[in-house]
Protein 1
Amino acid sequence: MLALARILIVLFVVAFVVGGAAMIVAYPAEIWVWVGGLVLIVIGVGGVVAIVVERMRFRSERAEPAPDPARSPGGEPSSDPLGPAFRATDEVFVDPTSGRHMRVWLDPSTGERRYRPEG
């Protein structure tokens, strides 16, 4: 919804700039036309700048949440129990981001895998 609103506003302010430039080109000898054309151009450029600043300055917390506290590579906190269905497998690997040894846990009924730090 907001993306559509931004597009419509950009189209509107671009029309201001084009309209102001067209006025100046069409009636170069009329001073009041020049003033009106420049006003339209300034409003249009100001609108484009406002859209760019709004996009950079105001960000949605829902769309860009703050990073979560450190979690295991499986996504759940390491202190949470896995549940009775999960069984430890023989798969152990070194996590490339943390350098920790990780064990793979498997729920045989669903095939879901979880990764927990070893030791």
Protein 2
Amino acid sequence: MLYRAIKKAGLEKRLTPHGLRHTFASLLLADGKPVTEVASYLGHKNCAITLAVYSHFIGEETGALQDLSASILAGGQS
């Protein structure tokens, strides 16, 4: 159904369910939604997963959280 809708809309770029999921999460984070909320929507059990994939969409004001998540993902070695 997705591909038929894309063709009917006349879009040239190929969209996939995964791409739409990524866009959804990216737009929420760019809009300042809490990482915990976005992680829940995506079904991630841990916010660190969300941060690892989407941290570049989070504003500068959350730099401390990004640093913490990077430390956690690196196994506490900073």
Protein 3
Amino acid sequence: MIVARASRPPGFDMTYRPAETAFGPPLHQRVPSFIYLFAALAVVAVLAIAERSSPGSALYDWVIARDAGRIISSRTLAIVLMAGAVASIIRAGMRGVRIRGDGLEYREVLALGWPRVRRYKWAQIDRIILDSPGAIGLDLWDGTRAFLPLVSDRERLCATLEKVAAARAIPVRGGAGLDEIPERPEFDDEVA
């Protein structure tokens, strides 16, 4: 006896898959990179002004004329500083949390700028902990607890995690609770 399977349309899935959303690091973690960038831009500006100043000026003498005796020329120093500043901005932006359809991904930056990416499938998460004062915690299937890095919009991340947890029957400790049922007059008992 041959049993025919019902065909499903492409992309049909029986489980809730949230839209991909990214949450970047908070501003206080990015401030040092911006300060470094502004310092590098100041060095480039001083170099540009020195190159355009008259050959007898003190700035021209200090920056351009003394370049012959230095180990690194002023142009090379400016290029290295700008490259370092851009790398610092990129490195600061590597941190954060990404909600994906199949799970959760977070990135941290270790020593020497090496990123560490952790991915957890929704099935691996036993409980989401939102009431801790610092980072958001995840109780995992193997008995360990992982903490998500700080993000710029913690409230939106908590709300997104609560929605996913409600749809996937993952217990949540803390949180604001979901109230997405629209209040319409036709569903009121008092309306005749």
